[in-house]
């Protein structure tokens, strides 16, 4: 599997580290214990297209959001995750 | 209080043995460790990439690389190292951390890497063939021309790789590696280069 880093171009999998599901959003401070429990512990085991966080630690050290099909490993989109590249996202 | 006498040495001081290595005959690969350089990491603060770029342009007279490139001035090389960040490689303190700190006040965070990295210059007829064994990126001249740069890994070790101006009609690749990983990568490079014959040296001159 290869990932096309938006900053570095196509690179081998060994340069990247998988973090996990990119969907969960940190709940508001008053959201309650159940919402926090869901956010910290509960994950869907998706067979199909999934949004994931990957870290290009062996390259430009940017965090990426990768849209990947877990059945075929087909990657349909790669974009910088929020905060990756000071000017690119969340500036 | 004890007196300390700091002896500044290259991390490759022990591993590097100048001379010939590997196959006999004309050496296909030339390895030169470049010592005593100034290296500063410049990283834009959040939302300040534009200001950083302006400050760099004013300081160096050329735009700092915003993509995978290395650009040279008469006395410094600016090497892309990731989004909104680059390295400044120079000699003699003119563009060292003390000189650059006031230039980037407020726009970028600076970190002195002068004694943290090892700089290895790889050239020779078989340089590409040797690098192909340890790198997964395409170094073909059509893809990786003069001035191309990459943040990548060799033998699971992070490196900054860029292609210098050609010397004697041959490509010159420079790589920066973290000091503590340098000896390990050095041995891997020697193993990869041995079959082509190697000339090993060190220099104080930035190529």
Write structural notes for this entry.
The complex is a heterodimer of chains A (about 90) and B (about 210). With about 90 residues, chain A is mostly beta strands. Chain A has a single domain (about 1-80), classed as Folate-binding fold (2-Layer Sandwich), CATH 3.30.2270.10. Helices cover about 10% and strands about 35% of the residues of chain A. Chain A has one helix and six strands; from the N terminus they run E-E-E-H-E-E-E. Chain A has one helix at about 35-40, and strands at about 1-5, 10, 15-20, 50-55, 65-70, 75-80. In chain A, the strands form two sheets. A four-stranded antiparallel beta sheet of chain A has the order 3-4-5-6, with no helix packed on it. In chain A, strands 1-2 form a two-stranded antiparallel sheet. In chain A, a hairpin with a 3-residue loop joins strand 1 (about 1-5) and strand 2. The longest helix of chain A has 9 residues, at about 35-40. Chain A is globular and about 40 Å long. The N and C termini of chain A lie far apart (about 30 Å). The relative contact order of chain A is 0.24. The mean pLDDT of chain A is about 90. By secondary structure, chain B is an alpha+beta fold. Chain B folds into two domains: about 20-35 and about 115-205, Probable tRNA modification gtpase trme, domain 1 (Gyrase A, domain 2, 2-Layer Sandwich); about 40-110, Heterotetrameric sarcosine oxidase (Alpha-Beta Plaits), CATH 3.30.70. Chain B is built from four helices and twelve strands; from the N terminus they run E-E-E-H-E-E-E-H-E-E-H-E-E-E-H-E. Chain B has helices spanning about 50-60, 95-100, 125-135, 180-195, and strands spanning about 20, 30-35, 40-45, 70, 75-80, 85-90, 110, 115-125, 150-155, 155-165, 170-180, 200-205. In chain B, the strands form two sheets. Chain B has a seven-stranded mixed beta sheet with strand order 1-12-2-8-11-10-9, with helices on one face. In chain B, strands 4-5-6-3-7 form a five-stranded antiparallel beta sheet, covered by helices on one side. The interface of A and B includes residues 7 and 88 of A.
